[in-house]
């Protein structure tokens, strides 16, 4: 048995296309793997305590080494967890400096999946910055999938941050990461499920 943690992005949920595709693929090809897809809070201030609580409640996530798949903001959080707990992470178009990017999003929002209203405030950016891992200590512990056509994030930031990692850079694509499912066999191999 093996456990994998999937972390979705900002304004997303375990019901997202990528999370559901990951769940279905693992169920079909690796039925012995338990895929954890927690709903992350919309408020950055609640993310760290919730993730720490989730890992405490699911100690099996750490028993064979933490294995994380993180998309966008989930990639940012996955890096934080791997730097803290050790393990391996597969990152899909990961956010690198969301505390800068989300300055444009201060104000009121509604999560399109959960319909939950929330507000982003300046303090949230400080909280996000406290989770930053500007330099990853063991880049070989990361598989990073990037598409140059990402309309939300500049892929070059991730390319620079994760030098020394297994980088896969595809021309074109978009933030959702086109043809993501074709990369799941590589992701599973990398995580050694």
Automatic annotation (TrEMBL):
Gene3D superfamilies: alpha/beta hydrolase (3.40.50.1820). Pfam families: UPF0227 (PF05728). InterPro entries: AB_hydrolase_fold, UPF0227/Esterase_YqiA. This is Esterase YqiA. It comes from the Bacteria. It comes from Salinimonas marina.
């Amino acid at each position: 048995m093996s456990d994998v943690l999937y972390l979705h992005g900002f304004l997303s949920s375990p019901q997202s296309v990528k999370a559901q595709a990951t769940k279905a693929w693992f169920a079909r090809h690796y039925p012995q793997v338990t895929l954890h897809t927690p709903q992350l809070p919309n408020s950055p201030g609640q993310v760290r305590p919730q993730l720490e609580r989730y890992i405490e409640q699911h100690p099996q996530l750490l028993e064979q080494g933490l294995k994380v798949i993180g998309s966008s903001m989930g990639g940012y959080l996955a890096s934080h967890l791997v730097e803290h707990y050790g393990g391996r992470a597969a990152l899909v178009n990961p956010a690198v400096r969301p505390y800068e990017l989300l300055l444009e999003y201060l104000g009121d929002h509604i999560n399109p999946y959960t319909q939950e209203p929330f507000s982003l405030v300046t303090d949230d950016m400080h909280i996000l910055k406290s989770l930053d891992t500007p330099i990853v200590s063991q880049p070989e512990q990361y598989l990073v999938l990037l598409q140059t056509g990402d309309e939300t994030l500049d892929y070059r930031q991730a390319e620079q941050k994760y030098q020394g990692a297994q980088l896969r850079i595809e021309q074109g694509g978009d933030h959702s990461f086109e043809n993501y499912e074709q990369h799941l066999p590589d992701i599973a191999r990398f995580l050694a499920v």
